[in-house]
Amino acid sequence: MESNSYTNMAFQVTGGFAPYLTPLFEDMKSEMRKADISLSLQEYASTALFSAVLAFLFSAPIVSVIVGMLVGSTSGIVSGAIAGLFVGLLFGTLTFLFFYVFPSIRVSGRRKSIDNALPFATMYLSTLAGTGTHPAAAFEMLGRFDEFGEVSREAKKITRDVYTFGVDLSTALEGAAERTPSSKMKDLLWAINNVLTSGGDFRTMLEERVETLMADYARTLDKFTDNLSVLIELYITFVIAGSVIGIVLASIMTSIGGTNQALLLIISVLITFLYLPISAGAFILIIKSISPVN
C-alpha cells in the first residue's frame, strides 16, 4: 500500500485525529514494513478512520430507509434510525478493525509468495553467479524478472539501495533480510552476505541453497497433494452428495407427509443457488490458501 489520492484525501480530512489513533498502531511498525506498506503511522491511522467513517455514512442511511419502509408508520422512522445507527457503527467498527489486521494478512501473503518463488529465483542467481556476474548486478537482473513476484520486488529494493542510495551491498542485504517477511529469504540473504564478506564461493553456496530449497518445495507439493485429496473427498461427500441427499429427502417428506410442494421448491432453490455456490467458493478459497502455486 502506497500513498495515493485516497490516502492523501483521508489524511487531509481526518489527519487531525491521527495523533490520537497512532498509539493504537504503534506496535504494527514491523508488520507494516514487512507488508511493504510505505505509509507513515499517521497516514495509515487517518486512512483507517476515514474509511470507517465512510462505511458508517454509507450503510446507516440505507439500512434506516429499508427498515423504515418495512416497518411502516411513525414507529418505522424510530426503528429505522436505531437499526441504521447500529448497523452503521458495526460496519464502521469492522472497517477500522480490518485496517488493524490488514498488515498481518498482507505479511502472510507476501511470505507465501516469496517462499514459493525463492527456489527458482535462487536458481537464477546461481546461474548468473556461474557466469561471473557481480552479486550486485545479479540482484539487479533478478529484479527485472517480474515472474518471481515478491522476490523480484525485494531484489529491486536491494538494487535501489546500492545504485541509488549508494549503500554498500552488505548493508543493503542486511536491510533486506530485516524487512522480508520470509524466514527462508532472510536466511538466504544472510548466507549471501556472509559469503561475500568472508570471501567464500558465491556460486557454490547458491547451488547448495538451491538443492535445499527445491527439496523443501518438493515436500510442500507432496503435502499439498495429500491435503487436496482429502479436500476433494470432503467436497464430494458434503457438497455433491449432500445436495443430492437433501433434495431427495425433501421430495420423500413432501410425498409421504403431504407437505406443500412449495417447500420442496424452496429447499431446491436454497441448495442450488446458495448452498452449492457458497460451498464451492469456500473450497476454492481453501485450496488457493494452501496451494504452493501463486
Provide structural commentary.
This protein is mainly α and 294 residues long. It folds into 3 domains: 5-107; 113-214; 217-290, no CATH class. The protein has 11 helices and no strands. The chain starts with a helix and ends with a helix. The mean pLDDT is 86.
Short description:
The chain has 294 residues and is an all-alpha fold. It has helices at residues 5-14, 18-21, 29-34, 41-71, 73-130, 135-143, 150-163, 169-179, 183-198, 202-257, 261-290.
Q: State mean pLDDT (0 to 100 scale).
A: 86
Largest beta-sheet details:
none
Number of helices: 11
- Radius of gyration from the alpha-carbon trace, in angstroms: 27 Å
Termini separation (Å)?
Answer: 20 Å
Class based on secondary structure composition and strand pairing: mainly alpha
- What is the helix/strand order? HHHHHHHHHHH
Helix and strand layout, with pairings?
Elements lengths: L4 H10 L3 H4 L7 H6 L6 H31 L1 H58 L4 H9 L6 H14 L5 H11 L3 H16 L3 H56 L3 H30 L4
Features:
single chain; 294 residues; mainly alpha; 11 helices; flat
